[in-house]
């Protein structure tokens, strides 16, 4: 019995040391992001709380930034369906993100793009509804992540 355990340990050690097998999940999102910890950013326009948090997570914080990222957010709402009592049944949201990335030392514009994100929100009741409010917050977060990707 001990010989089998010994052989098993030797095989696992050999596989682990002689290959690039990783037994632990590694988050490679930050490793693939070439701008991570290289920018300073500012967000203007429509105030969406999840934008500040997600941009910080996605790009990190830099003490000596190379690039400056300016994000201007604008939002439009359109009533898509109204009930007979004038309560809104469906709302269409359109978020526009204007990204401007500029090099700080060279003072030149590197990237400029407008990205649009749309979603439809169906309020569950008139008044305060926690589930409905959290659903709207989640839709905003997904729209911001889509814009950052």
The biggest beta sheet, please? 4 strands, mixed
The separation of the N and C termini measures 53 Å
Residue windows where pLDDT falls under 50 for at least 5 positions: none
Q: Which secondary-structure class do the elements indicate?
A: alpha+beta
Mean pLDDT: 79
Tell the overall outline. Answer: flat
- Total beta strand runs: 4
- Binned, the helix content reads 25-40%
Order of helices and strands: HHEHEEEH
Give the oligomeric state. single chain
Strand portion: 35-45%
Our Rg estimate from Cα atoms comes to: 24 Å
Number of helices: 4
The largest beta-sheet arranges its strands as 1-2-3-4
Could you explain the architecture of this structure?
The protein has 149 residues and is α+β, with helices and mostly antiparallel strands. The protein has 4 helices and 4 strands; from the N terminus they run ααβαβββα. Strands 1-2-3-4 form a 4-stranded mixed sheet, with helices on one face. α3 packs across α4 (130-148). The model has no long low-confidence stretch (mean pLDDT 79).
Characteristics of this structure?
single chain, 149 residues, alpha+beta, 4-stranded mixed beta sheet, 4 helices, 34% helix, 36% strand, flat
Short account of what is shown:
With 149 residues, the protein is of the alpha+beta class. It has helices at residues 2-17, 29-32, 49-59, 130-148, and strands at 39-45, 67-82, 88-103, 108-121.
Topology:
Blueprint: H1 2-17, H2 29-32, E1 39-45, H3 49-59, E2 67-82, E3 88-103, E4 108-121, H4 130-148
Helix pairs in contact: 3-4
